[in-house]
Amino acid sequence: MATNPAPAEHLLPVSYADVQAAAMRIKGAVVRTPTLHSKTLSELTGARVFVKFENLQFTAAYKERGALNTLLQLDEAARAKGVIAASAGNHAQGLAYHGNRLGVPVTIVMPRLTPTVKVMQTESHGATVILEGETFDAAYEYARQLEGERDLTFVHPFDDPRIIAGQGTVALEMLEDVPELDTLVVPIGGGGLISGMATVARAQSREIQVIGVQAELYPSMYNRLRGTHMACGGDTLAEGIAVKQPGGLTAQVVEALVDDIVLVGERRLEEAVSLLLQIEKTVAEGAGAAGLAALLAFREKFRGRTIGIVICGGNIDTRLLANVLLRDLARSGRLARLRIRLQDRPGALFQVARIFDQERVNILELSHQRIFTNLPAKGLSLDVECETRDRAHLDRLLAALRQDNYEVNLVELA
pLDDT for 296-328, tens place per residue? Predict the structure, then answer.
């Protein structure tokens, strides 16, 4: 990664001039999203934090920028024949939306197991969706096959100079709005966004640090640049950056221009999604919250710096978002599940409920277990889901129960 001055621009696939040209090309056709100071996130992290709200794009993600920049550079013959891509996420929607707007036919190949809502969203933007293969790799291979058979133009989600230049316009706008930024913290999946943003940062007359963020479960670019061999796989909240194989062009740019890459765990990603909703009143998908997750996980690294983070997308399933918010409430002590051992006799439930009443704790749900338990036959396991004000309030409830000689355990989250 970048330890020496940046190489000459002609040695890299994208130049600062390319990003500037992309900005002129797409101007007025994508939302110029705001970059706003967050007083609360700044106090929470110890840095001066500015947030770029790319989740306010029409398709709720920055991917529109690169997709549009690519479409606008196709000749008339290529536009008439149409484009094809393999994607089950934001790239598909960005390409479909702007293709439809420009009259360019768009075909998207998705894995067969893609959630119906994603298929419908992409089709709603006018694209033809083909479901093929059980994995993204299989869908990708089929898309490349159709590219040749139908003489379509393949639009790669990240490993294309036109895509990289389009994504770099995010940094142009951030630095226009907040010239004093000294650090950019950017999610990395395939590397298109950070490659474009790093190209802009390195072209400035002063030093701006560029730090990449990957999910711990998918450290693909981290592995490639550090020579490590950590496994890539698993169910991550940050599915938008769950890329097993980074791009060749993007890896070249990241190695030359990016200062460091950090890895964040699922718990920090969940916390970041929840905080952005609570504090900024904005919905971020897991990948979109990765920058904030890094600030939370590495406070000392970023303390005192003037930092720009990008909410690169806001497309998250509502049920998943609800789960994230409830899990965050549980970790903060505002929701809890207690497992209490009782004697199976009349009035036992009343007596324990009396303590909840005394401590002003709201009971949400009760569950008895008499049969499938390792307690004696006259024993009873009671699970109580309850709502408290905060961790201190929960601790007072636990202390009151134990003072009355109840055996009680808190059911913890992973």
Answer: 999 999 999 999 999 999 999 899 999 999 999
Q: Which residues pair with 211 in a beta bridge?
A: 185, 260
* Per-residue buried b or exposed e for 378-404, using 16+ beta carbons within 10 Å of the residue's own CB: eebbbebbbebeeeebbeebbebbeee
Residue with tokens 């293709």: 99
pLDDT for 354-384, tens place per residue?
A: 999 999 999 999 987 655 555 554 567 889 9
What global pTM score does this model have? 0.89
Placement of tokens 């009259």 in the chain:
103
DSSP 3-state helix, strand, coil percentages of the chain (rounded to 5)? Answer: 45, 20, 35
Which two tokens mark 113?
Answer: 């197991």
Question: Distance (Å, rounded) from C-alpha 201 to C-alpha 207?
Answer: 8
User: What phi, psi does 278 have (nearest 5°)?
Assistant: -70, -45
- How far apart CA 359 and CA 157 sit, in angstroms, is 54
Q: How many helices (H) and strands (E) in the chain? A: 17, 14
Domains in the chain, CATH or no CATH each: 10-61+160-327 (3.40.50.1100), 83-151 (3.40.50.1100), 333-410 (3.30.70.260)
Contact by Cβ (8 Å): 211, 222 = no
Distance CA 371, CA 71 (A): 64
pLDDT 10s digits, 278-299: 999 999 999 999 999 999 999 9
Residue 67 token pair: 């997709």
**Residue 268: φ, ψ to 5°:** -70, -35
b/e map 49-79, b = 16+ CB within 10 Å:
bbbbbbbebebbbbbbbbbbbbbbebeeeeb
Give, as one character, the DSSP assignment of residue 21.
H
Long-range pairs, 80-83, Cβ under 8 A, ≥24: 81/105, 81/150, 81/151, 81/152, 81/153, 82/106, 82/107, 82/150, 82/152, 82/153, 83/107, 83/152, 83/153, 83/154, 83/155
Q: Evaluate whether 200 touches 176 at the Cβ level (below 8 Å).
A: no
Q: For the sheet containing 306-311, what is the strand order?
A: 35-37, 48-53, 306-311, 183-187, 209-215, 260-264
